[in-house]
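2024-03-11 09:14:02 INFO worker-7 job=invfold-0412 stage=load source=structure_tokens
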């Protein structure tokens, strides 16, 4: 189950499905033609699908002019992600006609959508000729002076043909240099790029009316919020493979932004996680199978990218990656496909020590990469694993405990609630407000207190969904000191997948929102720490608030501590963090961070990343590429392999204490040591 997806009650789903399939009244009574028979998506089916989204959605209930405009913005992003087909004036005309065209579609008339696709096919033909003329020149050479704004939204549509030609020129040099990085020779890279644009023209000619309608319905869904979308029959098959238990591949969750496949999350226990090869927000620009030339994946449909990357266990795939952090980097990485190792995904306890005022403190660190679990007999559950680790920490004489959620992208809500309850005696952990307006509080299922000692929780921008529920609940109960990035990711919504009749795919729609015990939603704002620590992940391009059409945060009546809830005065005797202690901890941490050259370097990297996050200089990438090649030659001359394979995973009996904690974990441990001494 993906983060934020729940098994909600069957009644709302049944209502949605009935709404889609129920016989329509005649068009002159309702204004909406009856849906076509199952088997394929038709124009007359589209109004029912759009209305079904509105019926099920947690916020948007009416088809407003804003939603219509948003839909066409999303539609144009899907049709022209790199903004090389339409000129600015043409895009403005499409937006201006959005209300009228939407009215036609809702009346079962989709001819305007089909005409737009015909127009775009002509532009693909023009683009093919343009690329062939530039890249096909015998004297073609890479122009290192090219600077490209890779964020298509930031650069916008070209104003005229001259601007479009210059944009295409820059893209050609960037794309060919990507292929060269992937191992191609210049002539081969030019031929491959020209052929790719020929294929784009061919595919645009082969697009069916059903394909056009699928993109439109998906654009409508995405106009509601970042996590609602439409699965065509083919996309639904890909989604089911992604959700399957085998999880065979490289263990990465991808999304598409401005035509680039982007790493959203590294799946704990997967092949990539075990090699540290990729990071969230990396852009994949080319993919190559073992022994095969690279294939550019810029502007490629995400499902086609996933199919290129996915493969059988034991086979290899080479990715060309663009990373925009402190410095712009472009590099190749080879990953051996594998299944997710649940041992690697499991919660783990290790020990650290700190000496404060001559006293040596024994501190436990529980790393929880996800809220995994299976109700089947004999299967592991994260809640049981963490409970056992807490017992081990108590028996081992831990003076304090650090719960590391900095890599935790979410998981099963049930186990997140259960783990939260291990640190308090009783009380509501999270409330879920459904699209019907009904709210339900999920309480601590275990009234036993399994850890009553000092507790610090480490979070990051990557901490999302279920991990935000745990962090938010324990912050509201004043049970833990939260340390980490300026906020967590901010995904506080629930998605439900509604299967449609064969051939029609499925709807994925946001049907509920999460709320913390103090009444705030985790949506959009995330959970802020008590003490902020600089980290390379604390960037403004990571987080729910940066997603297009993100739902705003909401509030509800508190149901936890200091509330009028009947359980509010029965929270149990657990250790509470006081404002005075938080002030002292913040002061001590600020002193350490300001005196640390390592944290100063992180701050400088963040500033550089902010400056360079949307613009790349080809000369800079080429210079780094040449430096890397020179380094490989030096290594080879010294007798080492030019490309070193990643280290093998450690065996179960390996000494994990030899692993150096990250800078953020070390500071969190120092804060925990301060907490222990202040509470003594």
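2024-03-11 09:14:09 INFO worker-7 stage=emit residues=680
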């Amino acid at each position: 189950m993906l983060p934020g997806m729940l098994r909600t009650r069957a009644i709302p789903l049944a209502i949605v499905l009935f709404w889609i399939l129920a016989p329509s009244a005649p068009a002159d009574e309702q204004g909406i033609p009856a849906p076509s028979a199952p088997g394929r998506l038709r124009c007359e089916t589209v109004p029912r699908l759009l209305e079904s989204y509105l019926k099920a959605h947690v916020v948007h209930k009416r088809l407003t002019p804003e939603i219509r405009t948003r839909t066409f913005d999303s539609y144009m992003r899907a049709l022209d992600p790199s903004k090389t087909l339409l000129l600015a004036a043409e895009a403005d005309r499409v937006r201006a006609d959005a209300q009228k065209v939407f009215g036609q579609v809702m009346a079962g008339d989709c001819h305007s959508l089909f005409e737009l696709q015909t127009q775009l096919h002509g532009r693909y033909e023009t683009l093919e000729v343009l690329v062939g003329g530039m890249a096909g020149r015998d004297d073609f050479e890479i122009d290192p002076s090219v600077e490209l704004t890779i964020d298509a939204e930031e650069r916008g549509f070209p104003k005229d043909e001259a601007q479009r030609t210059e944009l295409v020129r820059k893209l050609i040099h960037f794309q060919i240099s990507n292929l060269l990085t992937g191992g191609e020779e210049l002539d081969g890279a030019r031929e491959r790029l020209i052929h790719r644009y020929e294929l784009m023209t061919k595919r645009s000619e082969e697009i069916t009316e059903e394909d056009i309608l699928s993109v439109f319905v998906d654009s409508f869904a995405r106009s509601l919020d970042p996590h609602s979308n439409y699965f065509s029959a083919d996309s639904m098959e890909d989604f089911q493979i992604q959700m399957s238990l085998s999880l065979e591949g490289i263990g990465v969750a991808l999304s598409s932004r401005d035509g680039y496949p982007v790493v959203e999350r590294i799946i704990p226990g997967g092949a990539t996680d075990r090699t540290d090869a990729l990071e969230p927000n990396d852009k994949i620009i080319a993919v190559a199978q073992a022994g095969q030339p690279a294939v550019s994946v810029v502007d490629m449909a995400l499902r086609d990218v996933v199919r290129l990357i996915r493969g059988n266990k034991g086979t290899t795939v080479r990715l060309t990656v663009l990373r925009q952090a402190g410095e712009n980097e472009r590099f190749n990485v080879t990953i051996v496909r594998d299944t997710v190792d649940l041992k690697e995904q499991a919660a783990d306890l290790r020990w650290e020590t700190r000496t404060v005022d001559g006293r040596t403190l024994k501190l436990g660190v529980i790393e929880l990469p996800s809220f995994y679990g299976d109700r089947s007999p004999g299967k592991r559950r994260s809640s049981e694993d963490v409970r056992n680790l807490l017992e081990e920490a108590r028996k081992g004489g831990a003076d304090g405990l650090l719960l590391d959620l900095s890599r935790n992208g979410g998981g099963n809500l049930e186990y997140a609630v259960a783990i939260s309850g291990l640190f308090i005696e009783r009380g509501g952990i999270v409330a879920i407000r459904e699209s019907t307006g009904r709210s339900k509080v999920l309480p601590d299922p275990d009234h036993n207190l399994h850890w009553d000692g000092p507790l610090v929780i480490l979070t990051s921008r990557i901490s999302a969904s279920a991990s935000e529920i745990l962090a938010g609940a324990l912050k509201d109960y004043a049970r833990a000191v939260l340390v980490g990035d300026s906020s967590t990711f901010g995904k506080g919504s629930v998605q439900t997948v509604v299967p449609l009749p064969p051939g029609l795919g499925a709807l994925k729609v946001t049907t509920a929102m999460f709320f913390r015990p103090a009444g705030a939603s985790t949506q959009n704002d995330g959970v802020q720490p008590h003490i902020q620590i600089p980290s390379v992940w604390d960037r403004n391009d990571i987080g729910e608030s940066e997603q297009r059409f993100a739902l705003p945060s909401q509030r509800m009546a508190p149901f936890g501590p200091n509330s009028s809830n009947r359980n509010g005065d029965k929270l149990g005797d657990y250790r509470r963090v006081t404002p005075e202690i938080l002030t002292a901890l913040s002061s001590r941490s600020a002193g350490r961070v300001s005196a640390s050259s390592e944290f100063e370097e992180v701050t400088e990297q963040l500033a550089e990343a902010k400056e360079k996050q949307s613009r790349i200089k080809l000369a800079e990438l080429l210079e780094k590429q040449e430096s890397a090649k020179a380094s490989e030659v030096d290594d080879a001359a010294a007798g080492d392999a030019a490309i070193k394979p990643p280290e093998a995973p450690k065996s179960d009996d390996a000494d994990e204490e030899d692993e150096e904690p990250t800078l953020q974990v070390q500071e969190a441990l120092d804060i925990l040591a301060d907490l222990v001494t202040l509470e003594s």
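2024-03-11 09:14:09 INFO worker-7 stage=report msg="The radius of gyration is 27 Å."
2024-03-11 09:14:10 INFO worker-7 job finished
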